[in-house]
Amino acid sequence: MKKVLLVIALILFGTGMYSIQYFTTLFDSKDSAIIINKSYSFKDDFEDKQKLAKTVDNIFIGEVVREVGNEPYTGTHNTQFSVRITQNIKGALLGDITLNQLGGYYKEKGKYYLFSYEKSPMLKEKQMYLFAVTNTKKGYFEMMPKYGSVLLDNEDEKLKLIEEFREVLERN
Predict the structure, then answer these.
(1) Ramachandran bin of 72, using left for φ above 0, alpha for ψ from -120 to 50, beta for the remaining angles
(2) Could you read off the pLDDT of 1-33 as tens digits, one per residue?
(3) Whole-angstrom distance, CA of residue 22 vs CA of residue 43
(4) Any idea of the CA torsion for 55, 64, 31, 26, to the nearest 10 degrees?
(5) What is the pTM (predicted TM-score) of this model?
(6) What confidence tens digit (pLDDT) does each residue in 121-155 have?
(7) How far is residue 81's CA from residue 119's CA, in Å, rounded to a whole number?
């Protein structure tokens, strides 16, 4: 009788673990995600900082605080982050804002994926970036793929980018 109960318990435990692995991201590693990269149809050449600065509503230095949400995969996946503004370059934002990044992690049919546009890396918590964003009516700010964020590795890089964008904004 004890052996039968033990076998049933092991079967139930195994089924539960399989279900958790298949239907949740609990045991998945972001490093092992299958990457799906798509191209994005830009309306202009945003490699040109002057065109980028004209198009976006705000340019600022900010620190990613944490991921705050995402939208389920429906052709595109979006991930929202809380970002703390530390220095405005264009616009006058204060405190923490919610920033939407096109792309993100999701699970489908037991496999873990990273959906991205233009090979844009996902934002990372506790990292500083230069952001170029537009306002939305949805209560968050939208960051364009590839050109909407620049990871700042050091203070010299940060100061250089701030100076470049200030010069561009003076010319506009």
Answers:
(1) beta
(2) 778 777 777 787 767 666 555 555 545 566 678
(3) 39
(4) -120
(5) 0.78
(6) 999 999 999 999 999 888 899 998 889 999 999 99
(7) 19
